[in-house]
Write the structure tokens for this entry.
Amino acid sequence: MMTGEPVNILGMSREELRSFAAELGERPYRGDQVYQWLYARGATGFDVMTDCGRAFRETLHARARIAGVAQVKNQLSPADGTTKFLFALSDGLQIESVLIPPSSAFEGDDPGDEEPRSSRERLTLCVSTQVGCPLDCAFCATGTMGYLRNLTPGEIIDQVLTVRRLTGRTITNVVFMGMGEPMLNYDAVIRAGMLMTDGAGIAARRITVSTAGWADGIRRMADERTRMKLAVSLHSAVPATRDALMPVTRRFPLDALRAALQYYYARTKVRVTYEYIFFDGINDTPLEVRRLIAFARAIPCKLNVIPYHEIGFAGPEGIGASLRPSPRMHEIVEELRRANLTVIVRSSAGEDIAAACGQLAVQGLRRSRSGRSTRGVPDAEHGPRSIVTQHRHDRRP
């Protein structure tokens, strides 16, 4: 018989729960029952699992626990109905998730959706995958926190379960676009995605993994034929510009990113989404637009154009402190459409409560000004690896 501390079962797969039930002296089908209670019904305790039998529930009380995220507060945008949730983790760290209302997800239906849904039906949750982020993108408030740790599969899936329970609403879409770089927590993200699809009933085609351009993860998604969609935060197809905006380019240059994306499409035949913010005087020039069109034509894709959201509240440094939205955004969008590219313009859902794209950052969790906490990047589960060769203050305009 097992001894020691109770085991956290939130985040376990169906097979793991079947094995766990067997270790407890039960038939494996008991694990199937617990799986349904956790992910389909969102149970937070064992007493509600009435079909499991009293003796088994008592054993679960002694040998298991359900530990994910705990709601600290939520903030509702009076402007558009976006809700930002602040969650506490078991070690006291905190993360944010954002529930995006149907009318604010896109300006119009997304023509790339295999099953177009009316705006009234879509309800999207933006989830976090790390506490902070090590990639230090100039336009993202999360990067000012540095990197603290990866989230567990249970902490990721529980963002979905908890928001569903708190709101009583059906979440139709999930985007891994909150705090953190999903590809640097790949195994946990894929596990959580599987639990969302098999357990919580969210179709894989309605789950999107967004990366800053971590090419190794893109290739791994291709090799594993992951059914979730892929989005890439691009923001420039000119190497020097992208390097200034996104230090990950020093690890994976644009050529390497393009090659990984071509490999991904060749393996999956699923088109990629590029996320793009146009900054005044930086990536909105005629040269930048021409390079973007050429890059986008490498494989079938669509472009999500996102308005720039102010992050001055997070204390950005260097180029990040000088970024401004491009007044040419809509003009460029029309130029891209004339080039026969599919372009969707995102709305600014939640900007008034610092919940829009790029604005997530927990108050009080900030990296030291030395920048040391952003230099080590977690490589899968094997410890830090440095990808950034310069500190942010070395990149001032």
